[in-house]
Amino acid sequence: MDMMAAPPAARAQKWWSGGTRPASDKVLTADRGAYDEAVRAVRAGTLDADDAAGQLIDRMTDRELLGLLDGDSPRRLMPIIPILHGRRPFVAGAIPRLGIPGIRFSDGTRGVVIGDSTAFPAAMARAATWDPSLEERVGIAIGLETRARGANYSASICVNLLRHPAWGRAQECYGEDPVLTGTMGAALTRGVRVHVMACVKHFALNSMENERFEVNVTVDEHALHEVYLPHFKAVIEAGVDSVMSAYNRVRGEYMDINRALLTEVLRHEWAFSGFVTSDWVFGTHDAVLSLEAGMDIEMPLRLLRARNLPGALRNGEVARATVERSARRILRTSVRHAATLETAKPSLSVIASPAHRALAHQVATESIVMLKNDIIDAAPLLPLAPTMTHLAVIGRLATQANLGDNGSSRVRPPSTVSPLQGLREALPGVRFTTASGRNVSAAAAAAAAADTAILVVGLDQHDEGESVVTGGVEVGVLGRAFNAGPLRRMFVALAHVASHFVHGGDRTTLDLHASDVRLIRAVTAANPRTVVVLIGGSTILTQGWDESVPALLLAWYGGMEGGRALASVLTGAAEPGGRLPFVLPTNAGQLPPFDPAAKAVTYDNSWGQRRLDAAGNTAAFPFGFGLGYTTIEHRLLEHSFDETGGSAQVLVRNTGERAGSSVVQLYAADISLRRPVAQLLGFAKVTLHAGEEKNIRVTLDAGPTLQRDPVTRHWSPRAGEWALLAAQHSPNSWAGAVPLHRAAGLPG
Fold first, then answer.
1. Choosing a second label site near 5 at 20 to 30 A (CA), which of 285, 382, 418, 644?
2. What's the pLDDT tens digit per position in 296-313?
């Protein structure tokens, strides 16, 4: 909860002399050490962060106070934001007179966007590892490199739920499941916060791109709190410092002025004490209303608030207490986090260091999902036979540094490794033949002449990503001249025209390019020993062509070491450790409708694997699915569970002939229903030697089995005959499940 400014006499002893003066009677003496003194006092325990923030506020002029509430960059820099975004931190609320550094922003879910940095696999790929401890290490590395680049604040945690895989920024999230998403987002948060303040985005219900500025999301109370918010709450509980609001509207209100979510839920119900920023440039719609609703900083420029707040404060349109409330949130969060830092700013040598490259390689390896591995000539096609002497590597993506979206999450590593380069390094004694695939006949001939063919197909930044240009933007934030008249008409017209030429945005289909499908059919017909590698950020439908493919891998946007990681898996130096963080349906009709041009959408509790379960549809590959190079069995031994959660003990045994890993997944469902809908409650990744067995304790999240009363805000068990099952993916049968609990719930 936020504390209003206490009377000066009631505060702790100040570290500076001179007492408190009214805002209109401040002596503007420079004390560049004031902020550092506050940090030292909080670190020493002689002052708490809230009092330190209050004492800094006491020393500010009105202009300095209001300057905390928006970005420091002038409006004229808007056209070159994409350029500056990759060159320096964007600063908000710096006050050099008092030594206050401000919020120094860096973006990037795949790494630091400023200068060169380590390019980790996309967040969706990291979700496929199902390994929170590994994700926390990624967070530590991102935080360290962020600080080395001069930033103190990283918007690297994106936990928007994958409502539909055609969403252009799907690659930035952790998939379709609230428990998986919340667990991975919380892990990244813990890691990032070791070195910088962490920001989670985009709050809330942001999961379409082309109309993100205008779309209005309708959602009922149950779906809102039980589907689309739990993962945000998990990240709040992990200690995230800041929340970025979304562009879209929820129930008719833009998120920057949505008091119901920014204050009543985020602050009152969840007790979040950090600060909220807008999404960039067009994410603030009213200077005063946004402040009153709970949005603290307009990012990244001096736009609406710079124009409107000074007058609003003078004439009483906005209360000084409201201004100070946001200022206090910003300063206490900044001071509190700075007080936790134990080391000096790291040198640039940490950026893309050998340790971080090794981590990027490990993550990419553990993210790769093997969907098929058929028996060819009495043995699985993968790993590649050590007797192989001639390999054909085919496809336009085989030679590309395909890192994913080129929007705000773009990372520029000092080097990258393509699939072809990775294979050449891993197989120095093998003869390689390459073909781009543009000439299908030539590609088929290359495949026919080789022992094995590796075909790399899929998507890149032209197919999906952030929609940087859109026609649905409110340009009035740029100034009064843009509210109406020729400037507004010209700007909107240019945006509409440009939107037809800028790549990225929402996908129009979940299918591969037709040229890729033709290539797959030709190459597999020419060589039955063909491995197809899919690159992309979310679902790529495989029905219609995968029956002819003996081995199929999903390798994502694998980061700067992705080519080497893929080679490690193909050669058997490492196993494919990934599991699907979403369902792969047989056709798009099994998923919710998706219209990238929609101005209004309704989000309910029917999406992804749950929608398939409820409809009785069988997935091509279910949520949580993935094969390895060994065989592993799970058996649920016992569990304890109540409304607060619980744990389960699972016996895991490697019954194969080589070491391998598995993800123990615990699902619950109301089996009294004709079509039970599986709910993931918990998971744990485990690695075992050949023949080894382990007892694994898995933490269970009660959330998916509960429902929230919209009036009392209390949570209670859902009615039904609930059962628990340990599995290696979302189950299509509940045979062998054990009773979980049975309690009377509230009407659904």
1. 285
2. 999 999 999 999 999 999
